[in-house]
Amino acid sequence: MSRLSRFNAGLAVALALGGSASAAEVEVHGFLSQGLIASGRNAYLSPHSTEGSFELNEAGINVGSNLSRNLRVGAQFYMRDMGDYGQHDVSLDWVLVDYFVSEELGIRAGRIKAPGGLYQQIQDFDFLRSYALLPASAYDPTFRELANAYNGLAIYGSFELGGAGRLEYQAGAGDLSFSTGGDIAVNARGLGLPEPVAIESDYAAAAALDYYPVPELRIVLSAFHAHNFLADTGLKIDGGQQLGPFRLGDLVGLDTASVYAVAFDQHRTLLNAGVQYTAGPWSFDLEYRQDRHTNHRDWDALNDGDFYADGGYVGASVRIGDHWQVGGYYSKQWDRNDDRDGQRLASGTLSPSVAIGALRGKRSPDYQAWRQDVALGVNYFVSNRWIVKLEGHLASGTARLGFYNADTPASDRSEDWRFLVLKTSFSF
Q1: What is the per-residue pLDDT across 361-370, written as a single tens digit (0 to 9) for each?
Q2: Are 46 and 83 in contact (CB under 8 A)?
Q3: Backbone angles phi and psi of 353, in degrees to 5
Q4: Which of 54, 67, 107, 165 is at 20 to 30 A from 413, Cα to Cα?
Q5: Is the pTM of this model over 0.70?
Q6: 3-427 has which fold?
């Protein structure tokens, strides 16, 4: 099944637009998922997961209609609860008008789901993926708010290439909308910072190519860019602050006559490359993701310097009869390309913000620079609308665990840990 046919992002808002469609032409669909996560040693997804937590659920409902053979409208409302993320707040996940000109060209306008790798646009639908939790190396659940959707225009289409297969494309641009209490605010709290007083971006752009040399093989390239992304906490750091006989700027490479904002202030670019091969009951995934941070002010206290976080995974699954599926993956990610082994992080020399933490006695272990995860799961299809998933994970490293372990110093988090996910999902 192709991405464009899977992503039925267009069905909705017909009810809001009025009487162009009869009641019989309006479609209503939705999904509901409830999970249990239990982890040992380190909290994951929920700060209460070490005790077992049911804070792992999501739901969505979309409505829509084909107003004519070429015009359709749609919208989806979405909510989730993942520890401190979501808290069951209902958001407008996407809403659009979709005009189909031809196989080669379609036009969308509204709040548009952004493309990203193999699963970004269908990550909410458990029936379309074998994994209970998508690999965090390519699909970080803490940054859904940043790259999930943009408000603007997009074009899409597909071309038959004769004996060379089929090529599908998407491209669009617009602006981003953020909630002051959303994912980015939760991430700031996880870093021990106040919630940002301002979150904004000049514009966003997204594009993707899906190439099918043969129907069983899919090759994906995608990019998402947030230009001048700013999340300002309102805090300031004085380079001239005295620390014993020294000034802060002299110790960590700052101008001692300047005051610096504690803020994300950067261009963010997410790049995905993936390959998926399906052969009968078998499916194989290989994907790489890069999250590039390009700062455009002299210094900020959260992500100082230009760098990228990256990672990837390899996964496989197999259907067994009508009701069973077994699958798993190996995933690894790094927090910064310039310190993959964590030695600069552990020594306190990675960046000014790390140096400040070291000066205050908050050193981090080297294994906070990376994380790897081996997952194995089994799925049971109760029906074509109801699925139950059980997935076990053996993890090593603690990169990006601070968001769930804010009350536990980095040095007290365990390098080797494990967690278990039990999840059931229903669609209609």
Answers
A1: 566 788 988 9
A2: yes
A3: -65, -40
A4: 54
A5: yes
A6: Porin (2.40.160)
